[in-house]
Amino acid sequence: MGTARYLAIYPKAVNVTRQGLLQTERAFDTATHQPFDVPRSTFGDQLRAAEDHEALFNVIGRDFYVRLPCYSRAFPGKDLGGTEFRLRKRPLAVDFDTVTTIESPRWNAFDAELTAAWQGFMEASLDHRTKATDPHAYRERIQDHVLSIAYYWFQLMPLSRGSAMVGLLSILGLSLAADMETTARIPRDLLPL
């Protein structure tokens, strides 16, 4: 997170990690990937008081990660497993990394999710009757599918500027393909430099 392009999201990442620990009351061991309990009754006050990643690490006392949920739309109720925030002790400091796991079962689950979102986009974009009679409903349906494709891509992709650009271009390209031009800029506080 010390990389310049991620520094702008550091406070949000610390907060998301804290909230993940408080809401799920569990973390995963970095070496074994086994979950362990982090009960609010024991750790809640310390976690809420932790202001940075090193303080969070000191509360837990070992290498760990928090995996955010990423719920399926194609298979309601299924958690595909989202982005992970990992904290690891190093000789001079505590590393704080954002990771997306790339494993075959995960790829297969996201392939099904992205395929369903793509099919939804295609069906919506070919619905010329709704486009003609209710343009607002048409736009909302298209936007829903476009943003679903982007959301699942962002949850799956390797974290790099190139793959992030693919996600952004998907939003812009699919929107243009459906005759919806994007004119707004990404808010500065949401776009790390």
> What is the alpha-carbon Rg in Å?
19 Å
| SSE arrangement, N to C | HHEEHHEEEHHHH
What portion of the residues fall into strands of 2 or more residues? 5-15%
Order of strands, widest sheet: 2-1-3-4-5
Structure commentary:
This protein is an alpha+beta fold and 193 residues long. It has helices at residues 4-7, 10-24, 40-49, 53-60, 104-125, 128-133, 135-156, 161-177, and strands at residues 26-29, 35-37, 64-67, 84-89, 94-99. Strands 2-1-3-4-5 form a five-stranded antiparallel sheet, with helices on one face. Strand 4 (84-89) and strand 5 form a beta hairpin. Helix 2 (10-24) packs antiparallel against helix 3 (40-49). The longest helix is centred in the middle third of the chain and has 22 residues, at 104-125. It is elongated, with a radius of gyration of 19 Å. The two termini are 13 Å apart. The model has no long low-confidence stretch (mean pLDDT 87).
